[in-house]
């Protein structure tokens, strides 16, 4: 029997005032995969992501997460199963790296030993220097803040990871390193991941499936394999950009 998708959008509409943003969206995100969402600025990528964790509610249609329609009976419990990381990391400025990463687990009453074990595992996986844990966010580099944000999003063993341009603000070399780390984490803990990005290379490097949002006929879903087969490795990024342009309503 086929497994249910981790997230399913069924005829979902969302807008602001009279301005429709997402119209009649049907989409499914497979469990355990990384999917990238690309599309022109303002086409509704972040809106779509926030519909996945119930931060926003659709005007019409249904969002199902782990097979259950939102709103979940216990939205806080649902959100704790979903890691969420955004651009600039959005860390609590008055908490150290460690405190940021472990905050919710401490609220949940994890033992000191369990906290320490999980923290060390993630710290090593994302290659965060041990001394960075004791520092406040303003004392960390942008790349270290991103790593702290990633550890925080992953700490509770989420069933789903939502990443909203989390690597946009770091230099290309650091970004490449964090990509490597994210793939290493994903190999060990294959969590369903939805990544919003403007970076076509990032989308193709990290995701097996790329969704172009904002097309007149609805979202276009492309497998990385098919994109590479059509255009060869080097040019898959250009192909994706061309498809995005063609998809303009
Ligand atoms: N809280 C809000 N109130 C009113 N309008 C909003 C709100 N949030 C988003 N919008 C509008 O909805 C549209 C989609 O926004 P969204 O942030 O989802 O786009 P995006 O594709 O992620 O954009 P970008 O690539 O620039 O980050 C935009 O026109 C935005 O101005």
From TrEMBL:
SMART domains: AAA. Residues 7-240 form the ABC transporter domain. Keywords: ATP-binding, Nucleotide-binding, Transport. GO terms for molecular function: ATP binding; ATP hydrolysis activity. Pfam families: ABC_tran. InterPro entries: AAA+_ATPase, ABC_SmlMolc_Importer, ABC_transporter-like_ATP-bd, ABC_transporter-like_CS, P-loop_NTPase. PANTHER family: SPERMIDINE/PUTRESCINE IMPORT ATP-BINDING PROTEIN POTA, SPERMIDINE_PUTRESCINE IMPORT ATP-BINDING PROTEIN POTA. This is Pyrimidine ABC transporter, ATP-binding protein.
